[in-house]
TrEMBL record:
Belongs to the ABC transporter superfamily. This is L-cystine transport system ATP-binding protein. It is a peripheral membrane protein. Residues 2-239 form the ABC transporter domain. The lineage of its organism: Bacteria, Pseudomonadati, Pseudomonadota, Gammaproteobacteria, Pasteurellales.
Length: 245
């Protein structure tokens, strides 16, 4: 279970998050959709302190932190419970696929090299990359690099997986394979927050959909209601716009 309460964030004069609230139950998948620049990535990044929010609180299972009073140890403990899959993969360029997946297992989770290697190989196999484990990122397609990104996130067995537009940097022919992998992870009962512009995917995979605009969640509904009978005018307009484009 993850609960974000009243998350606020400004960059200088520019307030990007206006007190966002979101709760996701264990095993639930929530998609976040919304226009570019509305603050979706910033919101996701405040969850694992890639951006430190200015205020608000974050609960993951038994750990609650107040962002304004948090200490380094609490940040580390909270971050251990999440893993993020990025739009631009964010792999270490000078490390192989295998080494990329092993990294956090050794550095953060303090696993032995041997154990980290076994876990990494299993996760790379799960995403269909067993024959590429010794390749460097530049020797892999975008889709393969994103598979490494997903294997890396899965390997640490996080309480919550965060996806930030995981297919938007990919060539169109790569998108389906990545969405299939994410779908299969969702079906295994992983708690997930997915920022996406893939409406069909959001519709098929999510338990709930949240519409983000101007730094806040305008509307969050169960998926069916969200797409069939959105309550807010802004949501309606956005969905119409997405259909037309
Ligand atoms: N590190 C940063 N420094 C300054 N402004 C930022 C930073 N990150 C994001 N922003 C600003 O925050 C706003 C929301 O950006 P972002 O969260 O990336 O939106 P989205 O993911 O919905 O496209 C934008 O105006 C963007 O310029
Ligand atoms: Mg973004």
């Amino acid at each position: 279970m993850i609960r974000l309460s009243n998350i606020k964030k400004s960059f200088g004069e520019n307030q990007v998050l206006h007190g966002v609230n979101l709760s996701v139950d264990t095993g639930e998948v929530v998609s976040i959709i919304g226009a570019s620049g509305s603050g979706k990535s910033t919101f996701l990044r405040t969850i694992n302190f890639l951006e430190k929010a200015d205020s608000g609180s974050i609960t993951i299972d038994d750990l609650t932190i107040d962002v304004e009073k948090v200490n380094d140890k609490e940040i580390v403990n909270l971050c251990k419970k999440t893993a993020m899959v990025f739009q631009s993969y964010n792999l270490f360029r000078h490390r192989t696929a295998l080494e990329n997946v092993m990294e956090a297992l050794i550095i953060v989770q303090k696993k032995s090299k041997h154990e980290a290697r076994d876990i990494a190989i299993a996760e790379l196999e799960r995403v269909g990359l067993l024959d590429r484990i010794n390749y460097y990122p530049h020797q892999l397609s975008g889709g393969q690099q994103q598979r490494v990104g997903i294997a890396r996130a899965l390997a640490i067995n996080p309480k919550v997986m965060l996806f930030d537009e995981p297919t938007s940097a990919l060539d169109p022919e790569m998108v389906g394979g990545i969405l299939d992998i994410i779908r299969s992870i969702a079906e295994q009962g992983r708690t997930m927050i997915v920022v996406t512009h893939e409406m069909n995917f959001a519709q098929e995979v999510s338990d709930k959909v949240a519409f983000f605009a101007a730094g806040n969640i305008v509307e969050i509904e169960r998926t069916k209601e969200f797409f069939t009978s959105p309550k807010k005018v802004l949501t309606h307009q956005f969905l119409r716009h997405m259909k037309a484009s």
